[in-house]
Amino acid sequence: MAKMKGFRKLTNVAEALQIALKECSKVKVGGEMVIAEGALGRILAEDVVSQHNVPPYDRAAVDGYAIRSEEAFSASQSNPAILKIVGVAEAGAGRKRVGPKEAVEIYTGAVMPDGADAVAMAEDCQKEGDELQVLRAVPKYANVSRCGEDIKKVDVVFNRGHMLRAWDVGVLLSIRMREVAVRSRLKVAVLSTGSELVEISDPRALDETSLVDSTRPMIKALLTQAGCDVVDGGIVQDEVEAIRDRLSKLSGHADILITVGGTSIGGKDLVPEALDGVEGSRLIFHGIAAKPGKPLGFGVYMGKPLFMLPGYPVSALVGYESVIKPVIASLTGIPVREREKVKARLSRRVPTTPGVRHFLRVALEREGEGFTAKPIALTGSGLLSSVAKADGLVIVGEDREGLEEGEVVEVELLGD
Question: Residue 126 in 3-state DSSP?
Answer without folding.
Answer: strand
